[in-house]
Amino acid sequence: MIVLCVAEKPSISKSITNILSGGQFQTRSTRSNIIKNYDFSYPHSRANFTVTCVAGHVLQHDFAQSHRKWHSCDPFELFDAPIVTEVAPDKKAIADNLTAEALKAQQLMIWTDCDREGENIGAEIVKICRRVKPGIIVKRARFSAIISQQIHHAAQHPVELDYFQASAVEARIILDLRIGAAFTRMQTRTLQPLFQQITGVVSYGPCQFPTLGFVVSRFDQVQAFQPEKFWYIYLALCHDVTGNKEETPFTWSRGHLFDFSVAYALYVGVLEDKMARVTKVTKKNTKKWKPLPLTTVELQKSGSRLLKLSPKKILDIAEHLYQQGFVSYPRTETDQFDPQFDLASLIAKQVADLAWGAFASSLRDGGGFSQPRRGKNNDQAHPPIHPTAHAGNLTGDEKRVYEFITRRFLACCSKDALGFETTVEVEYGGEDFFAKGLIILERNYLEVYPYDKWNGKELPDFEEGATFVPSVCELRDGTTTKPSLLTEADLVGIMDKNGIGTDATIAQHIDTIIDREYVIPRMEGSVKYLVPSTFGIGLANGYNDIGFDRSLSKPQLRRETERNMVAVCQGTKTKNDMIVEAVEQYKDMYIKAKTNFAKVISSVRSHIDRDSRPGEGGNDRNGGPRPGGNN
DNA sequence: GCAAGGTC
């Protein structure tokens, strides 16, 4: 018997082959230069295995020819127009390989990633194979990590494909297409003739619009910001340490107050006292936790913050490093290492490095090793991102991304930084103040992870019950600071939290709203801020003005889609019900949007016009203030 | 010329 195993991508088919064959296999090339077929016998199942793969989705959904041209129909018809499913043009060789191999096999075993998309891709593979071999037996291998014992178990105890999950994804695909195309064509066809500035597509998408919404919403907060004055009592003691005057400042436990008369009354009360009393001195061990194992979203967030590269660029570089075999698969939600994961040999590979080799060897030989922290997420398909080989010849940004991934990994495998914290509490005139000191005892992971800062702060000795005359006691004032515009790192975090996009697509959505000129990046020093263009503000505000209870530029609608997908996965809702309900809902919104589109037009007009008034900087679609600082 | 999700 021949069993045809199909994985979601080349790396997995290779790993599965290595494990199941014990290294004894033949390789055949295919018409696709990224895909290989591997043959070997698998005595446990008394079968010959052929392992191959696809590269993500093979099928593509689009409207039938009758509705494909932009002016072929009223965009509203796209909510019901026929949709055809066909092999994507660039996946022809992959599909042909599947059918050719299926013809030789009696059983088809699906080895795609064990997530919703994987289940849907599995269903695509089944569909393609059954076109040429309707009777082929279909099984599903279920695995949660690419480790020998699990892969053998999956091969020997296959389950059934989960068509609920596959249907949930199918529903999302169809809805995104209908909604995206209908609104995009409507917006573009309405706005383009009215504004010479609008030359490209005015796209709408259920992920890109909420993404734009986040940028506009922060921009509005910055615009609406009114600085507020506050007051606080500043208390300090000067020590004469061998002639050097050193001031120890104390923080008021009330923080600061916005009411001057209250702050002033308290201050006057304080001044009546002559001496401050040390009420409590607390000394305790403290630690600064090492970072969690690295996920895709975290790589993009901290990478763009620390390395000043765009999230998309970081992911592209990580992908390339992966292709070269330097790092593990870069798209993962997992922030915990499997207990059986062989960390030691990966650490050993880094001993050769000039910069962090000594640290790696201290982990390996010097007892510096500590099991990584376990986060809460596991996608059951890929481990956290880690270096898989030592790379000594990288340059430029590739080198910096590899260095970050490697230092992060070594930091995860070392110990938390240890310190000793002293808190001195003081009472003066009925008010409480405190000061904190920190002595760093062991830097541990900080030695290899310079991206985290932890500074010690010396505090003179204070004894409980002691009294002193403060050197400084003043009522000082300050003002609240303007919030900053969003950085790409901020936006990645907000999208992740709101479930907009996935780890692999978040960066793409950000690029899309920049490509469409809804948002314009602006450099302020080395930090890149995202500023909505006048056009983007006009669109987002225009839709807000229409008064949907769940605006098209807010995240709720996408959250509903997600909830419905979960219901379809659980079998409490059918794919058709989900599609019909959502289509009805969006049809209503479309009609409402179209009849009230004058509001969007006037909102876009007022913003673009404001921008192109003579003498005010031309019509580069860019408006708004300079990014606010954080201090 | 439309979407978002896989993958390269």
Automatic annotation (TrEMBL):
GO biological process, one term: DNA recombination
Catalytic activity field: ATP-independent breakage of single-stranded DNA, followed by passage and rejoining
Alphabetized UniProt keyword annotations: DNA-binding, Isomerase, Metal-binding, Topoisomerase, Zinc, Zinc-finger
Listed EC numbers: 5.6.2.1
One cellular-component annotation, GO: nucleus
Domain Topo IA-type catalytic: from-to ranges: 162-590
Positions of the UniProt region annotated as Disordered: 367-393
Domain Toprim: 80-144
Enzyme's top EC category: isomerase
GO molecular function: DNA binding; DNA topoisomerase type I (single strand cut, ATP-independent) activity; zinc ion binding
Family per similarity comment: Belongs to the type IA topoisomerase family.
Function noted in UniProt: Introduces a single-strand break via transesterification at a target site in duplex DNA. Releases the supercoiling and torsional tension of DNA introduced during the DNA replication and transcription by transiently cleaving and rejoining one strand of the DNA duplex. The scissile phosphodiester is attacked by the catalytic tyrosine of the enzyme, resulting in the formation of a DNA-(5'-phosphotyrosyl)-enzyme intermediate and the expulsion of a 3'-OH DNA strand.
Protein name per UniProt: DNA topoisomerase
Biological classification of the source: Eukaryota, Fungi, Dikarya, Basidiomycota, Agaricomycotina
